[in-house]
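Hi P.,

Sorry for the delay on this. The queue was packed all week, but I finally got your sequence through. Input first:
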Amino acid sequence: MSENQDLGFFLPQEGSNLWMDNMVILKSSHNKDLAYEFINFMMNPEVAKRNADYVQYPTPNASAYQQLDASEKDNKIIYPDEEYLEKCHMIRFLGNDVVKINDLFEYIKMN
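Then the structure:
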């Protein structure tokens, strides 16, 4: 959005979905020590702050959050208040039910 003034972002008044990014180390990883180093690097408060600034997602890192400018902390798009978050939900894994939903969607779309 900083590069194109015609783009915008809003939070629907009804609420929205919640999501989170995760870092994992697979059992089959060949360089677990390097993976731990990378995760530790990303958790460093300075790095976590820079990452939050770049991706414009909220940081769960309390030390990084404390380093944010007030304008970032007060940005309700990135850090919505608790009242709004109560209207939001995590999308749960549907397993094989997703195939049924997709089939139903295809049926509706084609008829």
